UniProtKB/TrEMBL annotation:
Its main location: membrane. It comes from Paenactinomyces guangxiensis. Residues 42-125 form the ABC transmembrane type-1 domain. It holds the Pfam family ABC_membrane. The chain crosses the membrane at residues 92-117. GO terms for cellular component: plasma membrane. It is a multi-pass membrane protein. The keyword Protein biosynthesis does not apply. This is ABC transporter ATP-binding protein.
């Protein structure tokens, strides 16, 4: 198959459209809702554990110290889910989808563009 500028530009346009579609679908879920559900469940488990502790154990800590620890722990876990884990999964799935879509559109152009990735990484770093 001969590559013309028209076929290359059409391939690029389709890839851009698919990329935007994947971006919208990936952000269709609410990160705050997902991470909030996870940390709420964790918070309830921690509070249930604290209520089962003996009074002797609870008197060893200052008032509010245990609540502060639970709050800080849940906040740091929520931060991890919201800003690291969920976006990482989203980016990996989006990249796989883009690669599949590129191969479905045109195998040769996809192979050419994938061969250029190491060169772009080498030049940029």
């Amino acid at each position: 198959m001969n590559f013309t500028w028209k076929s290359v530009s059409s391939f690029i346009q389709r890839t851009i459209v698919f990329t935007e579609f994947c971006r919208l679908k990936a952000h269709g879920f609410n990160r705050d809702l997902v991470s909030g559900e996870i940390t709420d469940g964790l918070r309830y488990q921690l509070i249930a554990k604290l209520t089962r502790l003996s009074p002797k154990t609870l008197y060893q800590f200052k008032q509010g110290d245990l609540a502060n620890r639970v709050t800080q722990t849940c906040s740091s876990i929520e931060f991890y889910f919201k800003f690291f884990l969920l976006p990482s999964c989203s980016h990996v799935l989006r990249s796989i989808g883009i690669l599949i879509f590129m191969v479905v559109l045109n195998v040769k152009l996809a192979a050419i563009s994938l061969l250029l990735i190491p060169m772009v990484c080498w030049v940029s770093y």
